Design the sequence.
């Protein structure tokens, strides 16, 4: 049996350690560690905590008990919750479609040679630059039942005889908050799509023009397919941000009238924080996850289908 | 022995003194309560309070806070937020154990997290003993079991704000004091094109205030003394049938109103009657605009009409101060409370607010501001006339949740607008309330 001297043992260990550290996998893992720690701490932990809270009867400032699916089963019988699901779906679908259409139109317009293009682009960006709460307050005034500028102008022009009850009627209120969301969200879609449009080579359009393609054909067979990856990303984000909107609703209507504009996010807040029932609030927030996953899968994978990108029929 | 608290000691002491005094053993003299708190050295505290509707009120509060700092050396950072924003901040502070040392917020919020709050029994008992006792409703808002967890600051009192000339034109010389008369007045106002309007949106103060009053005035209530949900009742149904008639007289838009809408509508001359604090009148009176000054001259205030029980059933926006255990300086918090609630300071602040806060201690009613103008006087007794929002049960998590989730307001809004039949609206409210009260 050979007995190694102490310095020899240390040298052998050091060389093993340095070899391990030099290895691709170990080094890669070490570089990944800080990012993984941040992800776990700030993204995964709150999500898991939210999932856990949704299965408890936790109240503000107190420890809760595990109650399984009780929160979800009581929500299933809660008409206000289902109204918020309906409102959220309507809000997201209508606002996202209109934001996309308007955003794409604006992007195409801004991609053309326009006079004062820089100023116009700056104006388009304005709604996105203004803090959400400020724009929400502006809309709150615009929709005011007594002082609405819209109603005032229409009355002065003789189109209507009494002020429009924008936020006092359930359906009026729903459309009003959708318009506010569209106003705020269009710049994001427009500017991002504009960035995508500028990556499309002009030679493609020149070739198509030489082949006799019309404007509509160039849009259909060049612009849309080339833009579809960025459309997928933009729409994913747009749907996510619209589905989880909170500030606009909370500032303009607080979910009223008669819960007609309560989105799942605002109802979750009302039940969890002002109502004090953290468990139920978390359960409502958790109920948003399946909807979000479906929306993301649809917009991300659906819009990225290769056939669509290549102008295929399906 | 653990059931023996400071109040019992004070009572026993007073009884013993009276007994001995009666027998001539010791001279009889009213016991002067003493305040012996010693704040932590180098203390600094952060106070978050409700945002002012009357600027002079906040300025005086800030000036007194400064005076407190100069006197005690305790630094105070004073912040203000709207009612609606204080509630979530208070909840988050309780949950995470960080944030302001003292919050002056609303209603039964402290009852949602009582174990997170500083025991302020000594402050409450000192003030109570010094000034002859609290209003029973103030005591209910401050005390959980035998411990005071909050010090009531009073109620930002709500009264019926009305235009005198419009009321007279509707055939009333005096503001009606009963429900049939009130409905008749509203119908008259509507007929004359000078409508009333009461918030039916998610307005924390105004909507909850008048809806709870109307429910109680008809003999209805969310829960009974055993905290059992009893909102499904003939009395509630009567209230909902009444509100359907009342709603027809309202100015359009009330369904979307928050706490500031009725102020704006009243000051623009479009509204003749609403439930509000004294702020409409104060703003109009102090306005340089002659039109608003005219409105101030033509308006007056009245208590809410009395219903079937024959006694006032008002719900008022009671404001309460509560300190958190997470504070490093709980004694400084108590010192601050004691200073700000001292009669001399409270009176000066009340004067600056033009009678915005109805006092929690009857002894504070002798402030000359209450009789300086007859239009201010109805606000003085708001605490005397009000019921706590847990009526007829206890204040606690469930009562706060029912109010925070607008269960009663939504029920009235649904019935008033015909979105639901009164029976269905009542049933839906009962289902929602039961979920909070079943815990």
Sequence:
């Amino acid at each position: 049996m050979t007995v190694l001297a102490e310095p020899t043992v240390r040298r052998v260990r050091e060389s093993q350690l340095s070899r391990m550290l030099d290895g691709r996998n170990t080094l890669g893992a070490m570089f990944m560690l800080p990012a993984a720690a941040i992800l776990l701490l700030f993204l995964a932990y709150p999500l898991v905590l939210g999932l856990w809270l949704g299965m408890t009867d936790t109240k503000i400032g107190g420890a809760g008990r595990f109650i399984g699916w009780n929160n979800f089963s009581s929500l299933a019988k809660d008409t206000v919750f289902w109204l918020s699901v309906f409102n959220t779906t309507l809000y997201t679908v209508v606002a996202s479609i209109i934001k996309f259409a308007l955003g794409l139109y604006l992007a195409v317009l801004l991609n053309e040679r326009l006079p004062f293009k820089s100023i116009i682009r700056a104006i388009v960006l304005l709604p996105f630059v203004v803090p959400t709460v400020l724009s929400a307050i502006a809309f709150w005034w615009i929709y005011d039942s007594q002082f609405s500028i819209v109603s005032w102008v229409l009355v002065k022009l003789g189109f209507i005889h009494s002020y429009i009850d924008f936020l006092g009627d359930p359906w009026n209120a729903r459309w009003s908050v959708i318009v506010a969301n569209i106003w705020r969200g269009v710049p994001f879609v427009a500017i991002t799509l504009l960035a995508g449009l500028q990556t499309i080579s002009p030679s493609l359009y020149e070739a198509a023009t030489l082949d006799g393609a019309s404007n509509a054909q160039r849009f259909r067979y060049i612009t849309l397919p080339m833009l579809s990856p960025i459309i997928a990303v933009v729409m994913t984000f747009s749907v996510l941000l619209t589905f989880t909107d909170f500030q606009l609703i909370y500032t303009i209507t607080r979910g009223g009238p008669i819960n007609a504009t309560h989105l799942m996010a605002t109802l979750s807040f009302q039940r969890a924080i002002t109502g004090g029932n953290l468990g139920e609030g978390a359960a409502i927030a958790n109920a948003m996850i399946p909807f979000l996953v479906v929306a993301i899968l649809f917009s991300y994978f659906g819009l990225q289908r290769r056939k669509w990108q290549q102008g295929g029929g399906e | 022995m653990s059931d023996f608290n400071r109040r019992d000691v004070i009572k026993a002491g007073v009884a013993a003194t009276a007994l001995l005094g009666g027998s001539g053993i010791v001279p009889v003299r009213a016991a002067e309560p003493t305040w012996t708190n010693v704040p932590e050295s180098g203390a600094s505290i952060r106070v978050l309070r409700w945002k002012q509707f009357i600027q002079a009120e906040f300025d005086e509060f800030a000036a007194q806070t400064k005076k407190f700092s100069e006197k005690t050396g305790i630094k105070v950072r004073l912040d203000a937020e709207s009612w609606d924003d204080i509630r979530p901040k208070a909840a988050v502070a309780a949950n995470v154990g960080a944030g302001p040392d003292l919050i002056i917020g609303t209603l039964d919020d402290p009852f949602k997290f009582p174990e997170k709050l500083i025991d302020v029994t000594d402050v409450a008992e000192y003030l109570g003993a010094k000034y002859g006792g609290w209003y029973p409703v103030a005591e209910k808002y401050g005390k959980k079991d035998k411990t005071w967890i909050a010090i009531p600051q009073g109620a930002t009192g709500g009264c019926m704000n009305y235009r005198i000339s419009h009321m007279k034109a509707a055939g009333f010389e005096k503001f009606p004091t009963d429900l049939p008369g009130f409905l008749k007045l509203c119908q008259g106002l509507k007929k004359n094109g000078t409508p009333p309007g009461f918030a039916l949106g998610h307005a924390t103060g105004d909507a909850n205030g008048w809806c709870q009053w109307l429910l109680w005035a008809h003999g209805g209530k969310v829960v009974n003394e055993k905290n059992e949900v009893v909102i499904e009742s003939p009395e509630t149904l009567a209230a909902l049938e009444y509100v359907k008639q009342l709603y027809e007289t309202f100015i359009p838009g009330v369904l979307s109103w928050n706490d500031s809408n009725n102020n704006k509508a009243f000051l623009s001359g479009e509204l003749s009657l609403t439930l509000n604090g004294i702020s409409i009148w104060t703003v109009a009176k102090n306005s340089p605009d002659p039109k608003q000054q005219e409105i101030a001259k033509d308006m007056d205030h009245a208590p809410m009409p009395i219903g079937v029980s024959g006694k006032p059933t008002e719900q008022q926006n009671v404001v309460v101060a509560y300190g958190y255990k997470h504070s490093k300086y709980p004694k400084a918090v108590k010192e601050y409370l004691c200073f700000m609630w001292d009669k001399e300071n409270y009176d000066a602040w009340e004067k600056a607010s033009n009678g915005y806060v109805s006092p929690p201690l009857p002894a504070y009613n002798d402030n000359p501001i209450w009789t300086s103008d007859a239009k201010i006087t109805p606000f003085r007794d708001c605490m005397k006339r009000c019921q706590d929002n847990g009526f007829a049960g206890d204040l606690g998590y469930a009562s706060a949740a029912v109010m925070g989730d607008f269960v009663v307001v939504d029920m009235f809004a649904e019935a008033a607008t015909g979105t639901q039949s009164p029976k269905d609206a009542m049933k839906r409210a009962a289902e929602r309330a039961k979920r909070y009260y079943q815990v």
